[in-house]
Amino acid sequence: VPLGPGAHDLIHFSLVVAGFALLAHFLRTWHSTGEVSARYRPAVLASLAVTGVAFLSYVYLVLEFDQGYDLREGVYQPNAEALNTLVPRYMDWAVTVPLLMVEFLAVSAVVGAAARRTRFTLVGLAFLMILTGFIGAAVQEDGTSRTALIAWGVVSSAFYAALHVVLIRVLRRSRGAMGAQAYTSYRNATILLLSVWGWYPIAYALQVWFGGQWWTVTIQVGFSAADIAAKVGFGALIHKVAKLRTAEEV
Amino acid sequence: VPLGPGAHDLIHFSLVVAGFALLAHFLRTWHSTGEVSARYRPAVLASLAVTGVAFLSYVYLVLEFDQGYDLREGVYQPNAEALNTLVPRYMDWAVTVPLLMVEFLAVSAVVGAAARRTRFTLVGLAFLMILTGFIGAAVQEDGTSRTALIAWGVVSSAFYAALHVVLIRVLRRSRGAMGAQAYTSYRNATILLLSVWGWYPIAYALQVWFGGQWWTVTIQVGFSAADIAAKVGFGALIHKVAKLRTAEEV
Ligand SMILES: CC1=C(/C=C/C(C)=C/C=C/C(C)=C/C=O)C(C)(C)CCC1
Ligand SMILES: CC1=C(/C=C/C(C)=C/C=C/C(C)=C/C=O)C(C)(C)CCC1
To answer: Among B84, B43, B21, which Cα is nearest to B174's?
Structure first.
């Protein structure tokens, strides 16, 4: 889809701002792993890895976006590589969404063997959800088949639904086991994560049915905003839970 | 606007110097988060994130500036990408100005639920101020419309005015709650921040009414100087407040 300069610059803005926000959270987390006791450290380390990887992924996205469009007669024309402004996002997600699951679980009240089992389930489901979505969007019939897009979207959505069940079960089980303040933040983190997750399949479906430059803007800006909420906002809330639970222990 | 070599080199100088100053503050802060007690740590971490992000943003600005002009017959002619030497600044500001608000609030005497509410207000107003300015400068009618520039400038200025009110209220409320020396530095930090903030809307208005290479130089060099003052100078003063307040606690 060709983009006017305004649309182009707005997408560019959202990509760079998301990258900067991720970097800011990364730097903050780097220097505050010590605020949390050893038991909850894995949550903070997961957040560090998530935002580090995602920051780099946004650097890559910005470069691909710059290269994927050529300015001709005042309009940005996508060239042969323009698909690359959506596809690299899946590579980021394939690593960061499983890590977000680790981050989520590490501050819960699920421990020991049950935690190991749940972690395995969450990480596996998250990875398969992204992988199947990626196959529909880019691999099968080179990403040109609407049928493949829909079919793989349905498979991916099954993993998506299963993840919701497991996440909510973990939240429920944590209720009695932590202080009221920590639980409130933990619940807010879950609500935030699951609400912004709603955007990803919607955006996936939008590309099946809609075209035009402002849809492209909506999808790209939406992804950037959702990534900030799911990684930085969620990370800040989980960090808070980890700090409150650390304080409870003393 | 085509630039003579002297004008071009002066802008280039100011961009690189600002980048180096931000890096210097970043390195200093990186190694001095421990000077401040846990309570004021968020201020130092915010400053770390602000200067880290802004340093990277200046690296990006220098690259864009290099690419945006072609030297032909002894004059630097802007090419199709020359807008990019102003626009990336908004991307930096969209993240760093909200973080400067966090930094400001973290050493104030406002705590608990009131702090959470005020932080939310400050961060939201700061982000909206930058976003609306960006829409006027680059998105609506591709940044070519003088009416759009003025209209969005007015909207942005409303957020700007509201921010002043909130910041001054926080400063007032902190007066009795900290030592005289800490308060003096805190007041100086506020005065510094709000005075250099005056430059940004002036520069925005200048581009509506003035052209010519020396105006471009003024705007760019002015932004670089203002960014140094608002991030490094302000950061140093806030760091001092945090250290003094840490000492008071002992
Ligand atoms: C259900 C579904 C999807 C879900 C994707 C999700 C939920 C992605 C979450 C990404 C996050 C949270 C990134 C981190 O910031 C896909 C793969 C688009 C394919 C279509 C069906
Ligand atoms: C009022 C106003 C503006 C204010 C911008 C400000 C106040 C920016 C501050 C930036 C800082 C402090 C950067 C950090 O170094 C805009 C957006 C130019 C648009 C026109 C109206």
So the answer is: B43
Return the ligand number nearest the Cα of B230.
2
Compute the distance from residue A130 Cα to the ligand 1 centre, in Å.
6
pLDDT band at A83 (very low <50, low <70, confident <90, very high): low
Best mutation site among B160, B224, B228 for ligand 2 pocket (most ligand atoms within 8 Å of CB): B160
Q: Is A108 left (phi over 0), alpha (psi -120 to 50) or beta?
A: beta
**DSSP three-state, residue A240:** helix
| Per-position DSSP letters for B34-86, written without gaps between them | GGS-TTTHHHHHHHHHHHHHHHHHHHHHHHHHHHHEEEETTEEEE-TTGGGGT
What pLDDT digit, counting tens, does each position of B46-76 carry? 999 999 999 999 999 998 888 888 888 889 8
Contacting B residues, span 151-180, partner chain A, CB-CB under 8 Å: none
CA of B194: how far to CAs of A95, B169, B187, B197, B201, in Å? Answer: 42, 13, 11, 5, 12
User: With respect to CATH, is domain B5-249 assigned 1.20.1070.10?
Assistant: yes
What is the distance between the alpha carbons of residues A148 and A132, in angstroms, rounded to a whole number? 10
